[in-house]
Amino acid sequence: MDRLKKLFENFSGADCALITSDINRRYFTGMKSSAGTVLVFPDKAYLLIDFRYIEKARETVSDAEVIEQKKLYPQIMELVKRHGAKTMAIESETMTVRELNAYRHFFRELDIDDSDALSNAINAMRSVKDEEELLCIRKAQEIAEKAYGELLNFLRAGVTERQAALELNRLMFEYGAEDISFDTIVLSGANTSMPHGVPSDKPMTDGEFVLMDFGAVWNGYHSDMTRTVCIGKPTDEMERVYNIVLEAQLAAIEAARPGITGCELDGIARKIIENSGYGECFGHSLGHGVGLEIHEKPNASPNYAAVLKKGEIITVEPGIYIAGKFGVRIEDFVILTENGCDNLTKCAKNIIYL
Ligand code: ZN
Ligand code: ZN
What we know:
The protein is α+β, with helices and mostly antiparallel strands. 43% of the residues are buried. The protein has a 6-stranded mixed sheet, sandwiched between helices. Helix 7 packs across helix 8 and helix 9 runs antiparallel to helix 10. The site of one zinc ion (ZN) has 4 residues, from loops.
């Protein structure tokens, strides 16, 4: 996988790096586990892992020397001394204060770098997807879309939000998801004006929007999409709002390319919504990265000044929410290519009347 080798090309703040978060450990070793420690030096990496995982680790992890964990701190200290390291960086984003205190207490002679440098470097690495990761994400999305296509036959007046959410989850598992990306959102009618509402026992009725935000996980990688459909016929206002959101979404996808900042991309969709008089009704940011976690770097938001890079994934999910009436959100996710982007979401998004 080579990711461990590349860590010190992206990070130079300390003599070694201690990786303890489950997700980052999986990212660097390729192996899922609920415990274990990766210790990385510029020329060598180690995975210390306990008895429960040792057999699998020896079979599957090739980029790090696998060591059975007995007494973690003395074992880490021994490796640190062997490599003559004086400073060790930790993941500020995920290490708890208690763990940090314990490391400080035990490794007195070591200078522990608790700055954001290591977490930032890892986040930047993770945000750019390689072919292997992209394959998993495409597969996750395929599963979610297949389930969604099937769900459309199930939606009708009388079906409750919870029933629809349950059916969507069931279909995703049936089609091969190892998990769902997050608690599936299915909302209808006035509930759709709450961007992250929770499915209730409310039945869907004629002339209402149904908003569904969901994703599947495949081999650790997430997908994320939102569709808003109508049961029966929408009002003129509903149709108008739907088309504004769609126009904003299409314009942002058109503009998504390496070199644009997250803030600029957000602004393209936001401008269209503002110009049509609904600026106040788009209260969240345009998008986020997706990968081993459902929300990761980069971001497309008014305060994300960093430039987006080739190989990064970003969701494009503008919405208009009119309290007490209805809401519309349309979400695809794209990967940035040399000159533009490739939309990983294939299913239609013209307004659908069921
Ligand atoms: Zn979503
Ligand atoms: Zn999203």
